[in-house]
UniProtKB/TrEMBL annotation:
Its cofactor is Zn(2+). It comes from Actinotalea fermentans. One of its GO terms (molecular function) is oxidoreductase activity. SUPFAM superfamilies: GroES-like, NAD(P)-binding Rossmann-fold domains. This is Putative zinc-containing alcohol dehydrogenase. Residues 7-339 form the Enoyl reductase (ER) domain.
Length: 346
């Protein structure tokens, strides 16, 4: 098979590799039908998320089962499936406490030895561990693009929304309209908010945010606080999702949130960030941060099948697998107009 392989700092290319095989009775092997490039893939290649060099890249996929381990009971050859970016075993201490994101035996697909040493999804074939525990069957009528969003970004965005939104009729602000922020905008529609306010510096991303359900789209750098005050009747945002991880956006989240409001942070700061804790304390603000909870893929797939969600507009570009190196370059170089690329695998 072919896969995207990172052999040294800043170097990633499409190369030949041995086909994966069943290694444990709970494994399946999946023929990848669609994959994509994430910003964290770029961070890995450039050493911002340290891991030993020499690994297959990618953690998002939709595929078809082509081989099944002896202990797998829920899936068969030919099933169309989507899996989590971070596999979990379901039986370790972290999983039993509900912290599957930090499974003691798991990690993150396609992220090198420090993150579990699992194969990457920018490949023609993928070995998936703990298949019965982790995989979701893709319903008929749900496209590969729609399902592809479920295994990482849509789940992560919805995690932040569920932590920040506590009732119907709330004003929800999402800071940052990359794929995770757009996923927060989109899944916020499930909670019957009064307003969904998307904030970003790039007009094309704000346009996609409107398509995905934003009622208001604000350009970063404008007086966002004044606009949110007007939208909320002077109260502020009941719920804020921060999906950037910059000091300026984290500080803005603290300014925008209403008294008694909640902030969900899924943006990953590159360095320590100061926070105005006295301000948060006197406003009785609840601040949550954490990794995406990937255990609700079945729910998201059902919402898509029912027509309540359609995350496919965030895939602004489509490329065949033969052009995956260019898809990576587009993400690395932040090519204008490219939010997320759907890579189709023959």
């Amino acid at each position: 098979m072919q896969h995207m392989y990172c052999d040294s700092l800043g170097s990633v290319r499409l190369v030949e590799a041995a086909d994966p095989v069943i290694e444990a009775p709970t494994d399946v092997v999946v023929r990848v039908r669609a994959t994509t490039v994430c910003g964290s893939d770029v961070h890995l290649v450039h050493g911002h998320l340290p891991t030993p060099w020499g690994f297959s890249l990618g953690h998002e996929y939709v595929g078809e089962v082509v081989a099944v381990g002896a202990a797998v009971t829920r899936f068969a050859v030919g099933d169309r499936v989507v899996g989590p970016a971070a596999p979990w075993c379901g039986s370790c201490g972290a999983c039993r406490r509900g912290q599957t994101q930090r499974c003691e035996r798991g990690g993150v697909l396609g992220s090198g030895a420090r993150w579990g040493g699992w194969g990457g999804t920018m490949a023609e074939l993928l070995r998936v561990p703990w298949a019965d525990m982790d995989l979701s069957r893709v319903p008929d009528g749900v496209t590969d693009a729609q399902a592809l969003a479920v295994g990482d970004v849509l789940s992560t965005g919805w995690t932040a929304v569920r932590q920040a939104v506590t009732d119907v009729g709330q004003v929800v602000v999402v800071l940052g309209c990359g794929p995770v922020g757009l996923s927060a905008v989109h899944t916020a529609t499930l909670h019957a908010p009064r307003a969904i306010v998307a904030v970003d510096a790039m007009p094309d991303r704000l346009e996609v945010a409107r398509t995905l359900g934003a009622t208001h789209a604000l350009a970063a750098g404008d007086d966002v606080a004044a606009a949110v005050a007007e939208i909320s009747g002077g109260v502020g945002a009941d719920a804020v999702v921060e999906a950037v991880g910059l000091p300026v956006t984290l500080a803005l989240a603290c300014d925008l949130v209403a008294t008694g409001g909640r902030i969900g942070v899924v943006g990953i700061p590159a360095e320590p960030v100061p926070l105005p804790f006295a301000q948060l304390l006197f406003k009785n603000v609840t601040l949550w941060t954490g990794l995406g909870d990937l255990r609700h893929m079945d729910d998201l797939l059902r919402f898509i099948a029912e027509g309540r969600l359609d995350p496919s507009p965030m895939f602004t570009t489509t490329r065949p697998f033969a052009e995956i190196e260019q898809a990576y370059a587009d993400m690395e170089q932040r090519t204008p107009g490219v939010i997320k690329t759907l890579v189709t695998v023959p």
